[in-house]
């Protein structure tokens, strides 16, 4: 029986983290359907909005949920991964649900699935961790009385456990090379996996994309007779600028100028906000209160700025080439110490690490390579040697323990950027304590 939030995280971790076999992956949606059948399909009790992409889907989901909440609805938000507490995966855009609701829902879920097994033809008999996360999120939102929920996919789209929804809208954020062993080794293949969340007749809202990704999305939308609204077709005169306290963004939509001050910074955040506003506008969910909510919205690990011992520490879970480039530029805009700053970098396997290092390392005087937790594989030694070979003139060191890496960086007396993986900051005890407080 779950009695605390810490036990809630342990509960989910007790299930298998993945289903690696191709045969089982192909049956993933059937597994989720059977689990939801058992639970009485809680996801049917609220309106849903489905988000997929390689980067930015979490903040885009948050921005849309903030707009919906501002419109007067109670909107759940399901994102992943979490950074400091499992509650980050299932919340309102304005904050967490009461702790008792998380605990009671977990116990209800475990009671309902007692004796539940999946057939051998579908792989492992018990649900996976992500299948349980997803089912729990749906049950929590129903128990909380949510009228709406923005649901972010996990890995991919086509076979993602969330792809059993019948959403009001689909949102597709930028596509980059990621999880290539699972999703494919080209932009077109990855976009093809993400595009499969598009449903017949349901409007699709697409961010700025590489041409090859946009072509895939347009074709799938045409096949599904789904109206497509792209950033470039509907948003004009877009601009943004970063300073230490936020992001100024301006653009024109339907002849109306929008000027916003976002608490989360980087140009990527500004683009995500604009896509969410385009979506809310077309769904008749836009309000002044919603725009106010959007401006103050924030999530852990999305260009999160902290002052530690008198020095700026920026944490961002960016893990693609374009996203780390955006984070690098934003960091250089807010630091007072651009020529002496320290980079702490960690990345899991399957990412385009070579190109991430190439764009990230040049501005930093000192680089610390570390391990982004133990949940996913990471060859830190290989990353370290790669960084040294790319930039032999720089001070590059390997410190396996992330908490120790942060201590060494703080001892340098300079500003710090921590990026490369969502799993990295959560391993740093000081950051966890600050977040909890």
The overall pLDDT, averaged over residues, is: 92
Helix content: 40-55%
Name the overall outline.
globular
Low-confidence stretches: none
Named CATH topology of the largest domain? UDP-N-acetylmuramoyl-L-alanine:D-glutamate ligase
Q: What is the CATH C level class of the largest domain, in words?
A: Alpha Beta
Number of helices: 17
Strand order of the largest sheet: 3-2-4-1-5-6-7
* Binned strand content: 15-25%
CATH architecture of the largest domain: 3-Layer(aba) Sandwich
Kindly report the name of the CATH homologous superfamily of the largest domain: Mur-like, catalytic domain
Domain module tally:
2
Structural class assignment: alpha/beta
* Gyration radius from CA atoms, angstroms: 21 Å
- Number of separate strands: 16
Main sheet attributes: strand count, strand direction, barrel closure: 7 strands, mixed
> How far apart lie the N and C ends?
27 Å
Explain the overall architecture.
Helix content is 40%, strand content 18%. Helix 14 links the parallel strand 13 (342-345) and strand 14 (366-369). The relative contact order is 0.12. The chain has helices at 5-13, 22-26, 28-39, 57-70, 99-112, 129-143, 180-183, 187-195, 211-223, 231-234, 267-282, 288-296, 321-334, 353-360, 380-390, 402-411, 429-436; strands at 47-52, 75-78, 90-91, 148-152, 169-172, 204-206, 228-230, 235-243, 246-253, 256-262, 304-308, 311-315, 342-345, 366-369, 395-398, 416-419. Strands 3-2-4-1-5-6-7 form a seven-stranded mixed β-sheet, with helices on both faces. The protein has two domains: 5-296, UDP-N-acetylmuramoyl-L-alanine:D-glutamate ligase (3-Layer(aba) Sandwich); 304-436, Protein-Tyrosine Phosphatase, Chain A (Alpha-Beta Complex).
